[in-house]
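HOLO CASE FILE
Compound: iron/sulfur cluster
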Amino acid sequence: MKKAAYVTTLDNNRVQCTLCPHQCIINDCRQGLCLTRVNRSGVLYADNYCRPVSTAIDPIEKKPLYHFHPGSAIFSTGPNGCNLKCSFCQNYEISQSVLSLREFTPKELVKKVQRSNTIGIAYTYTEPYIWFETIMAIGESIRNLDLVNVMISNGYMEPQPLAELLEVVDAMNIDIKAMDDDFYKRLCKGTLAPVLRTCETVKKKIHLEITNLLVTGENDSDEAIEKLAKYIASNLGKDTPLHLSRYFPRYKLKSDPTEEEFMLRAWEIARDSLDYVYVGNMMTSDKANTYCPTCNTLLIERKGYSTQIMDNLASEQSTAGNCLSCGNSIAITL
Ligand code: SF4
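Model generated. Tokens follow.
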């Protein structure tokens, strides 16, 4: 059993978990809102420690990360549980109930990643932030093997643990669910401000991409897309890739899938403010491709999860993106 990090001891065997903004006060024999941090006799344990909920080798585009080693495969795994309660959760079977899972040692997990013959590990599927102890236990060993650590997260974090994670994590995709605190409170049992604070901190240190799931009737308006795109341009930089993801009814929310027509309009609106905008969870002829924002040359073509890097993206041996047609530098790590 692994003791949880970021805990304050209270009276009567109660503890306060200070890992995420919920700051749960947890009575003896109870767990926090994320389900996997459990108080036993006044000691908080991270019950999901080194227990992967599932493992797979995925294209990095599936995370989605389009500007970080495009075309690579990455070992993907994550913990049971989540610190948000989104009523439209697309992975609720593994995020919103407690599962009985095998515990590995950190060494065994690192070996699995090493043997996967990929660029590294993506902490994903549910909310990897609540796998803090696991990431800290294996992240540095992964780095020492010249492999990468990437997180696909809801960004609902506290500054101090985030600072620790940023010592080992190389890239993140953070889901900004809506630029609307009421949306977070009503549909996710969270708040917006910590998510934006996380995005701004992450962008200063490592590679960042943003995802926004367009939920029918909730955040699929022209104004909502414009507000998000303008926020990203002003606070994270217009070179930050934005993935607009099509919603399908899951878990408690039964509204229809996002209109395909709206997905394309959302792309147009966001593209007015940002250099790199992508449509995900639906097939389009060109909205998953990367074009040079200056001369519009096709740089990366994506069809499903097949990725073709064009000759005009970079000179040989270079790991930095560069449009060879116009000389513009492209915010991509190859
Ligand atoms: S990590 Fe879990 S237990 Fe800790 S404050 Fe957040 S939701 Fe509560």
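CASE NOTES: The chain has a mean pLDDT of 96. The pocket of iron/sulfur cluster is lined by residues 17, 19-20, 22-24, 32-34, 37, 83, 130 (CB under 6 Å).
CLOSED: yes
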